[in-house]
Amino acid sequence: YIGNTNDDTDLTTYTFAAHSIGTATYNRCVHVAVHGNGGGVLVSSVSVGGVAAEINVNVLNGAATAAIASAFVPSGTTASIVVVFAGGQLGCRIGVWSSIGLPHTSAISASSTADPATATLTATEGGFCIAATSVNSANTLTWTGGVTEHYDATSGENRSGSGASGATTAAGITPSGDYSTASGIGVFATF
């Protein structure tokens, strides 16, 4: 896990300039969790340093959108991360991870509108899982099921985004995010 950044501006395209993406290496993959709120539209595209990312999962529940996208970006320790939505949003938060040695950017993915947001995913020994939630209100998450929380933040407009990750085994993983109030949308991906 590298970090998360929020932008409360009402936009369709969000550019997070010079965002840290970790140590450069020839087989680095950058993973971006996207939290969109207020627009009720999906993510159209994500790019990292000009590299188009594969959208691993992209779901909405009411006005809250959550997505995970991945791209191989071998050079640089910072990059502009650009998120484009299908329509206007009232704000966007991103969480950023990097990994080394993946053979591709594809993932096993799932989503949940339940409370708690939960999914059971197949996984590989030595792999990892990224989990993220978006809620169109102030909220906090309690993460269990093999993932550790990295951020749980409410924007200036009282919209929440939370992200977690954890190592996987061949037995699979069942991450779970328990909302403190109303449910939103949870997305999950194993690599």
Could you explain the architecture of this structure?
By secondary structure, the protein is mainly beta. Helix content is 0%, strand content 60%. The strands form 4 sheets. The protein has a 5-stranded antiparallel sheet, with no helix packed on it. A 5-stranded antiparallel sheet has the order 10-17-12-15-14, with no helix packed on it. The protein is globular.
Provide a concise account of the structure shown:
By secondary structure, this protein is mainly beta. Helices cover 0% and strands 60% of the residues.
Can you give keywords for this protein?
191 residues; mainly beta; 5-stranded antiparallel sheet; 17 strands; 0% helix; globular
Alpha plus pi helix count: 0
Strand content: over 45%
Mean pLDDT: 95
- As a whole number of angstroms, the C-alpha radius of gyration is 15 Å
> Which oligomerization state do the chains in this entry correspond to?
single chain
Helix content: under 10%
Alpha-beta classification: mainly beta
Indicate the overall shape.
Answer: globular
Strand arrangement across the biggest beta sheet: 1-9-3-7-6
Low-confidence stretches: none
The biggest sheet amounts to: 5 strands, antiparallel
Number of strands: 17
Instruction: State the end-to-end distance.
Output: 14 Å
Strand and helix order = EEEEEEEEEEEEEEEEE
